[in-house]
Write a structure and sequence with these properties.
Layout (H helix, E strand, L loop, with lengths): L20 H26 L2 H9 L71 E4 L5 E8 L8 E8 L3 E8 L5 E11 L1 E2 L5 E12 L13 E7 L7 E3 L3 E5 L5 E5 L5 E5 L2 H8 L10 E10 L10 E12 L4
Parallel strand pairs: 8-11
Antiparallel strand pairs: 1-4, 2-3, 3-14, 4-13, 5-12, 5-14, 6-7, 7-8, 7-13, 9-10
Length: 322
């Protein structure tokens, strides 16, 4: 038996509303109005009095137009003021030692000092002369310096090699009743594998039987020497420097001096000569020579045998003068 079926109550599914073309037109119109409103607001803000006052107060950089520049037919050139320049200070220059002065002043004896330019206050070429030995190679520089052991200017002989150089002065003396003093300092080197050569330097007091104008300066009749140098040969004759000949008996006496500095004083030259140079005839002496020398012994190479002498503050006075 079939049961009667009741009709089903089925509700239809709701349909989504559809946007009509009018709605799209309204939305587009609203967006356009907003854009127009924004443009109007921006124009109002930019043209407001406050904004224009701010723009007038703000600094602006004006870039001139090339066409706006005035034409100048001959523009003046800018004046350039040179910066002041510092005048460079010239470097100190060493005073060169002049050669022997010409003409030489005459060494005229005076009551208190027989030597001319004894302290080398002037150029060493004033009152003094220079001589050199045979040229075996070598070099000597002559100059004036300050040395702690010399109270006056120091005549300096700076030598290398074998050749000798001397600076000397001859003066006429009435007798040997004289007082002598002088200051010396020096240095010498010893060279060679066996120490067979050395520099030689020192002071010589030379005595002549002839006057200063007639005497041969390199051939004195006797010599009293103060020297330094390991290879100085005591038996040689001496002139302005050591000679090759043997010395005559009683005519050469050699002494050393303190190379650090020494004042040599002879209170009575006549008494000293009588004791140290018995071969000299005091009655015949007419001139005394002061000789400063530097050189090298035999076998010295040109760049070896250093000999340096510093000398000054000389006095040669009669005993009756203080």
């Amino acid at each position: 038996m079939d049961l009667p079926t009741a009709p089903l109550n089925i509700r239809p599914e709701p349909t989504r509303p559809r946007v009509s073309g009018i709605a799209w037109f309204i939305l587009f119109f609203l967006i356009a109005d907003l854009i127009i409103l924004a443009v109007i607001l921006n124009w109002l803000i930019s043209h407001s009095p406050e904004t224009q006052a701010y723009q007038l107060a703000a600094p602006t950089v004006a870039v001139p137009s090339p066409s706006a520049a005035p034409f100048i037919p001959n523009p003046p050139l800018p004046t350039v003021t040179p910066a002041p320049t510092e005048t460079p200070t010239p470097p100190p220059t060493a005073t060169p030692v002049p050669p022997t002065a010409t003409p030489q002043p005459t060494a005229t004896p005076t009551p208190s000092q027989l030597l001319v330019n004894p302290n080398f206050e002037l150029s060493w070429g004033i009152g003094w002369q220079q001589a050199t030995g045979d040229d075996f190679g070598g070099h000597t520089e002559v100059k004036l310096l300050k040395h702690p052991a010399i109270s006056s200017n120091a005549l300096t002989l700076d030598h290398t090699g074998q050749t000798f150089t001397s600076i000397y002065q001859l003066v006429k003396v009435p007798s040997l009743q004289l007082r002598f003093s002088g200051q010396l300092a020096g240095y010498t080197s010893t060279n060679g594998f066996f120490g067979d050569s050395s520099g030689l330097t020192g002071l010589g007091l030379n005595f002549y039987y002839a006057g200063p104008d007639e005497a041969d300066p390199n051939q004195p009749d006797a010599s009293l020497l103060y020297v330094t140098g390991s290879k100085f040969r005591n038996g040689r004759a001496f002139g302005l420097y050591p000679l090759a000949d043997s010395a005559k008996p009683g005519t050469v006496t050699v002494r050393s001096f303190d190379t650090r500095g020494q004042t040599i004083t002879i209170a009575n030259l006549q008494t000293e000569v009588q004791r140290s140079l018995p071969g000299l005839d005091l009655r015949q002496v007419q001139a005394v020579g002061i000789t400063l020398f530097a050189g090298g012994s035999d076998n010295c190479n040109p760049d070896e045998c250093i000999a340096r002498l510093y000398a000054g503050s000389f006095q040669l006075k009669p005993l009756n003068y203080n």
